[in-house]
Amino acid sequence: MTTILVTGANRGLGLEFVRQYAAEKAEVIACCRNPAKADKPAVPGVRVMELDVGSPESAARLAEALGGKPVDILINNAAVYGPKKQSAVESDYEGFLETYRINSLGPLMVSQALRANLLAGRDKKLVVISSEAGSISDSSGGVLAYRASKAALNMIFHGVAKSWARDGVAVGILHPGWVKTDMGGPDAPIGVEESVRGLRARIAELNLSNSGRFLDYKGAAIGW
Ligand SMILES: NC(=O)c1ccc[n+]([C@@H]2O[C@H](COP(=O)([O-])OP(=O)(O)OC[C@H]3O[C@@H](n4cnc5c(N)ncnc54)[C@H](OP(=O)(O)O)[C@@H]3O)[C@@H](O)[C@H]2O)c1
């Protein structure tokens, strides 16, 4: 049975990953900041575990609780949109740094903490949910903290893909589309079900020969 660990699994795209993979009878480890408050997906076999992706201590506690359990697919999904003020004219610098901490460093801290679990897994697939908003070549400006945090995430995991390929780990850097969630808002044209179906197809295709690419949920390449 494939074991999949998802961060930010209590709502939005993370919760939909849990629903879809659990419905396929995969073993799903659903991580969230506050398991007591998390919506329970309507499918059995999901283990809910605590993880604040902005905290290396929390990531280390999760690794300890997992105790060497193999993880086949790690999906770094959790992120924040950043502070209210993140324009070229006025920025909340603390909020800017917090956005980097959660969106850019968080997935690295979690992946490094769970590296042994991933290496013990069969599939060895490491996924980060990025955003087209992090593409410098496509950028129209604005929301600088969010955009910069995702551009940094892309650079970090492009590097991780090069380095971890030696250990057989394939890295997917994926954009989910503009999706109706708390972050995407009600005007987004894509539903969570469609987006996650596409992302899961990209994860199924992920291997060492296409590792480190920046793709959208339909498989189209996005410029860095
Ligand atoms: N929706 C879109 O249109 C869109 C477009 C491009 C990319 N994305 C990316 O897709 C991913 C999922 O986004 P979404 O739309 O599902 O967002 P969402 O509905 O706002 O959900 C964000 C999730 O991240 C979790 N999270 C935030 N900070 C965390 C932390 N420090 N530790 C652990 N969990 C934390 C939240 O948990 P709490 O409930 O505890 O806050 C929540 O579960 C993100 O990486 C986002 O950047 C989304």
Structural features, described:
Helix content is 38%, strand content 15%. The chain has one domain: Rossmann fold (3-Layer(aba) Sandwich), CATH 3.40.50.720. The protein has helices spanning 12-23, 56-66, 93-113, 115-120, 144-164, 192-205, and strands at residues 3-6, 27-32, 46-50, 73-76, 125-129, 170-175, 214-216. The chain is globular. It is of the alpha/beta class and 224 residues long. Strands 3-2-1-4-5-6-7 form a seven-stranded parallel β-sheet, sandwiched between helices. The protein starts with a strand and ends in an 8-residue tail after the last strand. The protein has six helices and seven strands, in the order βαββαβααβαβαβ. The longest helix is centred in the middle third of the chain and has 21 residues, at 93-113. Bound molecules: NADP nicotinamide-adenine-dinucleotide phosphate (NAP). NADP nicotinamide-adenine-dinucleotide phosphate binds at residues 7-8, 10-14, 32-34, 51-54, 77-80, 102, 129, 131, 175-176, 178-179, 181-184, 188.
Structure described in brief:
This protein is α/β, with parallel strands linked by helices. It is built from six helices and seven strands, in the order E-H-E-E-H-E-H-H-E-H-E-H-E. Bound molecules: NADP nicotinamide-adenine-dinucleotide phosphate (NAP).
